[in-house]
Every structure is written in C-alpha cells, then in structure tokens.
Amino acid sequence: MTASAALIAATILLGLAVGAGWTGATDWQVSHMLSLRVDESDPAFISFMQAASWIGGGTPRWIIVILLCGLVWHWCGPRCAVALGGASLLSNLASSVMKLGFGRARPDLIDHLDHQTSFSYPSGHATSAAVVYLLLAWLAPLRWRRAAWSLAGAMIVLNGFSRIMLGVHWASDIMGGTMLGAAFALLGAWWVRARGESRPAALRES
Question: 2-198: what CATH class?
C-alpha cells in the first residue's frame, strides 16, 4: 500500500512539474529523437508502431484484459481475475480523471499518426500496459514468471516508444502513466495477498 501511494503521489507531482514547464526541454529532446524522425523511417516500421499502439488502447485493450482475466482465473482462481480486471478499470478511471485535472495538450511537433481526442497527461496507454502486464507477471505461476516479466517489460517499452513516435505523447506522459499503472498493479497484488494466503498455492508451483 505504501509503495502504491508513493507512486500515485509521484504521478501527481510529475503532473505539477509538467504544468510548471519543468519537463519541457527533456520532452522536446526525446520527441525530437523519435517523432520528428518519422519521415525517415521505413513505412513498415511505422505500421508496426501503429499496430502496437492500437492493441494498447480502446476496444483491443479491453479484449486483452478479459482474455488475461480468464488466464489468471485458471492460474489462481477468481480472486486473481477480479484483481486484474478491477485494477485495470480503476487505473483507467484514475488516468481519465487526471487527464481532465491536468488538461495537458497533445504534442504538435508532427501530424498525429493516431487519432486522439483526450488530454495528454498521463498516458492512458502507458497506464494500461503497466497495470495489466506487471500484475500478470506477479500472478504468473513460477514456471511462467520469467516469460511473463519479459513480456511486461517489452509491452511497457514498446507501448511508450510507439506513443511518442506517433506524435501523440510526450515522454513525461509515458512516465506518469507507467507510474500510475504500476501503483494499481501493486494494489491488485496487495488485494490478492490480503484476501488469501501470502501467495496463492497455484502461483507457487514450479
């Protein structure tokens, strides 16, 4: 709980720093390296980035969450499925509320390569990737845990990279979203522990 509260506080503090303009120089440098080089990139690579971004938001994201809830139910029962689904929903709500609260405009360095209508901070895609895949990795049985953590790292990095490259987020948006998602992943893990054994039996299998 303490770590979750600290991450949520850090997300809010970063949002205040964003609003004060303290992250502007770093954000611009990162976007200059990524989004401003789109014209030099292979169209196939851009399509790949768009696909990676597409599965991280909207309807595809919730389809993945539902499927993963079924998977973790198989692994360790309904408590784990409720934790994953609930953490995903609550983090999405928190992200939406923070977007309205901070009201940060989207980057305007290039034409957006993904349609967006909401504010920029924190990134909902980054929030979702962190909460879903970090919690999935924690809930994975021992024999799958290394692969699950590798998947979590890959999805978080790929998702963040794609959002900046497509011109729809600043780096600080991604950082804020990742911290927010990690906070809710920890809350989900805490809830599973608090409602059962120190670790569900299915998760201790080798």
Answer: mainly alpha
